[in-house]
Amino acid sequence: MSGDAAGENTERDAVDEIVGQWLVERPDLADDLWPVQVFGRLQRLGAALEKQFRAFATERGLELGEFDVLLTLQRSGPPYELTAGAFRKAAMVTSGAITNRIDRMEAKGLVERVRDTADRRSVKIRLTERGRELTHALMADHLAHEARMLAPFDRAESEGLADLMRRLLVSLGDTTIK
């Protein structure tokens, strides 16, 4: 059931320990514990990655959410703006969280609020020139950081992992950021 059973890895992780505990507690479920191998690791990996990304952003004077806003606006293309509603959908956070995040970023001169000319009730969040320069400067560093985190895999293994995760996300309906 563990990686060493497949002959690939003899190192044990926390999920191996969790599965071992379940095997003692509920040996009758031994053949049914295989999803824990995947989802337990995905959950723990998510937490470990968030910690890494948070440290990366903090070292650069940003909060993780601010870094996410900068990248989201930059990749949206000219004029590098989105509505607060679009951010809520992409980030799955409350309107209050977006408002507070944008307030902090506006104070830093990274974004600005712009009234929609077609609908004055709608406000768009736009990347400032300073925000674009910062994002441009950080992107190569960000990609190198991600590549370092994937160092246990070669490029083909990374692409295979990405394909497997894509299949799982599509099967769960996660096919768009809108």
TrEMBL record:
Keyword entries, A-Z: DNA-binding, Transcription, Transcription regulation
Transmembrane segments: none
Pfam families: MarR_2
UniProt domain HTH marR-type: residue ranges: 35-170
Keyword flag Transcription: yes
Keyword Methyltransferase tagged: no
Any GO MF annotation of the entry: DNA-binding transcription factor activity
InterPro entries in the record: HTH_MarR-typ (IPR000835), Tscrpt_reg_MarR-type_CS (IPR023187), WH-like_DNA-bd_sf (IPR036388), WH_DNA-bd_sf (IPR036390)
Name of the protein this chain belongs to: MarR family transcriptional regulator
Organism encoding this protein: Streptomyces eurocidicus (Streptoverticillium eurocidicus)
